[in-house]
Amino acid sequence: MKQLLSNVIDIASTYGGKIVLAIVVTVVGLIVIKLLSKAIAKAFSKSKLDERAQSIITKLIKALLFLILIIAIVEILGVPMTSVVALLASCGLAVGLAFQGALANFAGGLMILVFRPFKIGDYVNASGAEGVVTDISIFYTKLLTLDNKRVLVPNGDLMNSNVTNFTAMGQRRVDLDFKITNDIDQELVKKVLLGAAVATKGVLEDPAAFARLTAVDDDTYIFTVRAWCKTDEYWDTYFDLIENCSTALAENGIDDPEERLAVRIVEAPKD
Protein backbone atom coordinates (compact mmCIF):
# COMPACT_ATOMS: atom_id res chain seq x y z
CA MET A 1 0.00 0.00 0.00
CA LYS A 2 2.84 2.32 0.91
CA GLN A 3 4.54 1.50 -2.39
CA LEU A 4 1.36 2.28 -4.35
CA LEU A 5 0.91 5.56 -2.50
CA SER A 6 4.53 6.41 -3.17
CA ASN A 7 4.08 5.71 -6.88
CA VAL A 8 0.99 7.90 -7.01
CA ILE A 9 2.84 10.74 -5.29
CA ASP A 10 5.74 10.39 -7.71
CA ILE A 11 3.43 10.47 -10.74
CA ALA A 12 1.50 13.41 -9.34
CA SER A 13 4.66 15.34 -8.64
CA THR A 14 6.06 14.55 -12.09
CA TYR A 15 2.95 14.90 -14.29
CA GLY A 16 0.48 16.69 -12.01
CA GLY A 17 1.32 20.14 -13.30
CA LYS A 18 1.12 19.00 -16.93
CA ILE A 19 -2.21 17.26 -16.36
CA VAL A 20 -3.71 20.31 -14.67
CA LEU A 21 -2.43 22.55 -17.47
CA ALA A 22 -3.82 20.16 -20.08
CA ILE A 23 -7.24 20.24 -18.39
CA VAL A 24 -7.21 24.05 -18.26
CA VAL A 25 -6.16 24.29 -21.93
CA THR A 26 -8.90 21.81 -22.87
CA VAL A 27 -11.63 23.81 -21.12
CA VAL A 28 -10.42 27.14 -22.48
CA GLY A 29 -9.89 25.64 -25.93
CA LEU A 30 -13.44 24.26 -26.08
CA ILE A 31 -14.85 27.65 -25.09
CA VAL A 32 -12.73 29.43 -27.70
CA ILE A 33 -13.73 26.93 -30.42
CA LYS A 34 -17.40 27.42 -29.57
CA LEU A 35 -17.10 31.20 -29.74
CA LEU A 36 -15.09 31.13 -32.97
CA SER A 37 -17.58 28.74 -34.59
CA LYS A 38 -20.46 31.06 -33.77
CA ALA A 39 -18.53 34.07 -35.08
CA ILE A 40 -17.66 32.28 -38.33
CA ALA A 41 -21.24 31.09 -38.82
CA LYS A 42 -22.51 34.64 -38.23
CA ALA A 43 -20.01 36.06 -40.73
CA PHE A 44 -21.00 33.48 -43.36
CA SER A 45 -24.71 34.20 -42.82
CA LYS A 46 -24.12 37.75 -44.11
CA SER A 47 -22.40 36.50 -47.26
CA LYS A 48 -23.96 35.27 -50.50
CA LEU A 49 -22.41 31.82 -50.05
CA ASP A 50 -24.72 28.83 -50.40
CA GLU A 51 -26.13 27.65 -47.06
CA ARG A 52 -24.78 24.12 -47.51
CA ALA A 53 -21.35 25.49 -48.36
CA GLN A 54 -21.51 27.67 -45.23
CA SER A 55 -22.32 24.65 -43.09
CA ILE A 56 -19.58 22.49 -44.61
CA ILE A 57 -16.87 25.17 -44.34
CA THR A 58 -17.88 25.96 -40.76
CA LYS A 59 -17.64 22.28 -39.79
CA LEU A 60 -14.26 21.93 -41.52
CA ILE A 61 -12.89 24.94 -39.65
CA LYS A 62 -14.29 23.58 -36.40
CA ALA A 63 -12.66 20.20 -37.03
CA LEU A 64 -9.34 21.94 -37.77
CA LEU A 65 -9.58 23.88 -34.49
CA PHE A 66 -10.24 20.64 -32.58
CA LEU A 67 -7.20 19.09 -34.24
CA ILE A 68 -5.04 22.03 -33.19
CA LEU A 69 -6.37 21.72 -29.63
CA ILE A 70 -5.58 18.01 -29.50
CA ILE A 71 -2.05 18.61 -30.77
CA ALA A 72 -1.58 21.33 -28.12
CA ILE A 73 -2.75 18.98 -25.35
CA VAL A 74 -0.50 16.20 -26.57
CA GLU A 75 2.43 18.64 -26.60
CA ILE A 76 1.65 19.74 -23.03
CA LEU A 77 1.56 16.12 -21.81
CA GLY A 78 5.02 15.60 -23.24
CA VAL A 79 4.22 13.11 -25.98
CA PRO A 80 6.88 13.29 -28.74
CA MET A 81 5.41 15.32 -31.63
CA THR A 82 7.37 13.35 -34.22
CA SER A 83 5.36 10.25 -33.31
CA VAL A 84 2.09 12.17 -33.43
CA VAL A 85 2.90 13.72 -36.80
CA ALA A 86 3.95 10.35 -38.21
CA LEU A 87 0.71 8.78 -36.97
CA LEU A 88 -1.43 11.55 -38.42
CA ALA A 89 0.42 11.38 -41.74
CA SER A 90 0.00 7.63 -42.05
CA CYS A 91 -3.68 7.84 -41.11
CA GLY A 92 -4.21 10.65 -43.61
CA LEU A 93 -2.50 8.70 -46.37
CA ALA A 94 -4.56 5.57 -45.64
CA VAL A 95 -7.82 7.51 -45.58
CA GLY A 96 -6.88 9.40 -48.74
CA LEU A 97 -6.14 6.21 -50.67
CA ALA A 98 -9.28 4.46 -49.41
CA PHE A 99 -11.60 7.35 -50.17
CA GLN A 100 -9.85 8.88 -53.17
CA GLY A 101 -12.96 9.06 -55.35
CA ALA A 102 -15.19 10.20 -52.50
CA LEU A 103 -12.73 12.95 -51.53
CA ALA A 104 -12.57 14.14 -55.15
CA ASN A 105 -16.37 14.31 -55.25
CA PHE A 106 -16.43 16.07 -51.87
CA ALA A 107 -13.94 18.68 -53.05
CA GLY A 108 -15.87 19.08 -56.30
CA GLY A 109 -19.15 19.52 -54.46
CA LEU A 110 -17.63 22.12 -52.17
CA MET A 111 -16.23 24.05 -55.14
CA ILE A 112 -19.60 23.92 -56.93
CA LEU A 113 -21.36 25.28 -53.84
CA VAL A 114 -18.75 28.03 -53.42
CA PHE A 115 -18.21 29.14 -57.05
CA ARG A 116 -21.76 28.26 -58.25
CA PRO A 117 -21.20 27.53 -61.97
CA PHE A 118 -24.88 26.52 -61.96
CA LYS A 119 -27.78 26.45 -59.54
CA ILE A 120 -30.90 24.38 -58.96
CA GLY A 121 -33.30 24.91 -61.87
CA ASP A 122 -30.60 25.53 -64.50
CA TYR A 123 -30.46 23.41 -67.65
CA VAL A 124 -26.90 22.19 -68.15
CA ASN A 125 -24.79 19.84 -70.25
CA ALA A 126 -21.79 18.40 -68.43
CA SER A 127 -19.77 15.20 -68.23
CA GLY A 128 -21.90 13.46 -70.87
CA ALA A 129 -25.21 14.27 -69.18
CA GLU A 130 -27.82 16.91 -69.94
CA GLY A 131 -30.85 18.04 -67.97
CA VAL A 132 -32.33 20.34 -65.34
CA VAL A 133 -30.40 20.55 -62.07
CA THR A 134 -32.74 19.34 -59.31
CA ASP A 135 -30.29 18.96 -56.41
CA ILE A 136 -26.63 19.68 -55.57
CA SER A 137 -25.37 17.46 -52.77
CA ILE A 138 -21.83 17.30 -51.45
CA PHE A 139 -20.97 14.22 -53.53
CA TYR A 140 -23.40 14.17 -56.50
CA THR A 141 -25.43 16.55 -58.63
CA LYS A 142 -28.86 15.34 -59.74
CA LEU A 143 -30.12 16.12 -63.24
CA LEU A 144 -33.60 15.52 -64.63
CA THR A 145 -33.55 14.85 -68.38
CA LEU A 146 -36.22 16.07 -70.78
CA ASP A 147 -37.67 12.54 -70.98
CA ASN A 148 -37.98 12.44 -67.16
CA LYS A 149 -34.92 10.36 -66.26
CA ARG A 150 -32.81 11.14 -63.20
CA VAL A 151 -29.04 11.24 -63.72
CA LEU A 152 -26.54 11.36 -60.85
CA VAL A 153 -23.28 13.02 -61.90
CA PRO A 154 -20.25 12.82 -59.55
CA ASN A 155 -19.15 16.30 -58.55
CA GLY A 156 -15.51 15.39 -59.14
CA ASP A 157 -16.31 14.73 -62.80
CA LEU A 158 -18.25 18.00 -63.09
CA MET A 159 -15.30 20.05 -61.88
CA ASN A 160 -12.96 18.33 -64.35
CA SER A 161 -15.12 18.75 -67.46
CA ASN A 162 -16.68 21.54 -69.51
CA VAL A 163 -20.07 22.65 -68.21
CA THR A 164 -22.54 24.33 -70.57
CA ASN A 165 -25.22 26.27 -68.72
CA PHE A 166 -28.07 26.93 -71.16
CA THR A 167 -30.10 29.05 -68.72
CA ALA A 168 -27.39 31.23 -67.21
CA MET A 169 -28.24 34.15 -69.50
CA GLY A 170 -31.59 35.86 -69.95
CA GLN A 171 -31.60 35.50 -73.75
CA ARG A 172 -30.73 32.72 -76.21
CA ARG A 173 -30.38 32.59 -79.98
CA VAL A 174 -32.20 30.13 -82.23
CA ASP A 175 -30.15 29.05 -85.28
CA LEU A 176 -31.84 27.29 -88.20
CA ASP A 177 -30.52 26.27 -91.64
CA PHE A 178 -32.72 25.87 -94.73
CA LYS A 179 -31.64 24.21 -98.00
CA ILE A 180 -32.94 25.99 -101.08
CA THR A 181 -32.45 25.19 -104.77
CA ASN A 182 -30.01 27.51 -106.50
CA ASP A 183 -32.46 28.58 -109.20
CA ILE A 184 -34.38 30.79 -106.73
CA ASP A 185 -33.85 34.52 -106.28
CA GLN A 186 -31.68 34.95 -103.19
CA GLU A 187 -33.22 38.28 -102.19
CA LEU A 188 -36.69 36.73 -102.27
CA VAL A 189 -35.61 33.89 -99.99
CA LYS A 190 -33.98 36.30 -97.53
CA LYS A 191 -37.09 38.49 -97.49
CA VAL A 192 -39.43 35.53 -96.92
CA LEU A 193 -37.33 33.99 -94.15
CA LEU A 194 -36.74 37.30 -92.37
CA GLY A 195 -40.43 38.15 -92.53
CA ALA A 196 -41.37 34.76 -91.09
CA ALA A 197 -38.79 35.14 -88.31
CA VAL A 198 -39.94 38.62 -87.32
CA ALA A 199 -43.57 37.48 -87.27
CA THR A 200 -42.84 34.50 -85.00
CA LYS A 201 -44.13 34.84 -81.46
CA GLY A 202 -41.32 35.12 -78.93
CA VAL A 203 -38.70 36.51 -81.34
CA LEU A 204 -37.18 39.69 -79.90
CA GLU A 205 -36.79 42.92 -81.85
CA ASP A 206 -33.41 43.60 -80.26
CA PRO A 207 -31.09 41.96 -81.17
CA ALA A 208 -32.66 41.91 -84.60
CA ALA A 209 -33.40 38.69 -86.50
CA PHE A 210 -31.01 37.60 -89.24
CA ALA A 211 -31.57 35.75 -92.54
CA ARG A 212 -28.70 35.39 -95.03
CA LEU A 213 -27.11 33.01 -97.51
CA THR A 214 -24.33 31.30 -95.50
CA ALA A 215 -23.14 28.40 -97.70
CA VAL A 216 -23.32 26.87 -101.16
CA ASP A 217 -23.36 23.09 -101.54
CA ASP A 218 -23.29 21.80 -105.15
CA ASP A 219 -26.65 22.90 -106.58
CA THR A 220 -28.02 23.97 -103.20
CA TYR A 221 -28.07 27.26 -101.32
CA ILE A 222 -28.05 27.13 -97.53
CA PHE A 223 -29.77 30.03 -95.81
CA THR A 224 -29.38 30.61 -92.08
CA VAL A 225 -32.00 32.19 -89.85
CA ARG A 226 -30.95 33.51 -86.44
CA ALA A 227 -33.40 34.95 -83.97
CA TRP A 228 -33.14 35.89 -80.30
CA CYS A 229 -35.69 35.01 -77.64
CA LYS A 230 -36.04 34.85 -73.87
CA THR A 231 -34.32 31.80 -72.39
CA ASP A 232 -37.47 30.39 -70.80
CA GLU A 233 -39.27 30.64 -74.18
CA TYR A 234 -36.51 29.00 -76.22
CA TRP A 235 -38.18 25.73 -77.22
CA ASP A 236 -41.55 27.31 -78.05
CA THR A 237 -39.79 29.89 -80.21
CA TYR A 238 -37.59 27.21 -81.80
CA PHE A 239 -40.49 25.07 -83.00
CA ASP A 240 -42.67 28.04 -83.99
CA LEU A 241 -39.80 29.44 -86.04
CA ILE A 242 -39.35 26.15 -87.92
CA GLU A 243 -43.07 25.98 -88.71
CA ASN A 244 -43.39 29.61 -89.78
CA CYS A 245 -40.31 29.61 -92.00
CA SER A 246 -41.24 26.32 -93.65
CA THR A 247 -44.80 27.52 -94.27
CA ALA A 248 -43.61 30.85 -95.69
CA LEU A 249 -41.21 29.14 -98.09
CA ALA A 250 -43.93 26.79 -99.34
CA GLU A 251 -46.43 29.62 -99.80
CA ASN A 252 -43.92 31.47 -101.99
CA GLY A 253 -43.15 28.42 -104.11
CA ILE A 254 -39.60 28.04 -102.79
CA ASP A 255 -38.56 24.39 -102.95
CA ASP A 256 -36.46 22.21 -100.74
CA PRO A 257 -34.01 20.42 -103.11
CA GLU A 258 -34.50 17.15 -101.25
CA GLU A 259 -38.16 17.19 -102.19
CA ARG A 260 -37.43 17.27 -105.91
CA LEU A 261 -37.38 14.08 -107.92
CA ALA A 262 -34.87 13.89 -110.75
CA VAL A 263 -36.29 12.15 -113.83
CA ARG A 264 -34.09 11.15 -116.75
CA ILE A 265 -35.76 10.24 -120.05
CA VAL A 266 -33.87 7.78 -122.17
CA GLU A 267 -35.05 6.97 -125.67
CA ALA A 268 -35.34 3.32 -126.59
CA PRO A 269 -32.86 2.20 -129.27
CA LYS A 270 -34.31 2.00 -132.78
CA ASP A 271 -34.31 -1.30 -134.56
Protein model, in words:
The protein has 271 residues and is of the alpha+beta class. It has three domains: 97 residues, Helix Hairpins (Orthogonal Bundle), CATH 1.10.287.1260; 49 residues, Roll (SH3 type barrels); 89 residues, Alpha-Beta Plaits. The protein is built from seven helices and eight strands, in the order H-H-H-H-E-E-E-E-H-E-E-H-E-E-H. The strands form two sheets. The chain has a five-stranded antiparallel beta sheet with strand order 4-3-2-1-5. It has a three-stranded antiparallel beta sheet with strand order 6-8-7, with helices on one face. Helix 1 runs antiparallel to helix 2 and helix 6 packs across helix 7. It starts with a helix and ends in a 20-residue tail after the last helix. About 2% of the residues have low confidence.
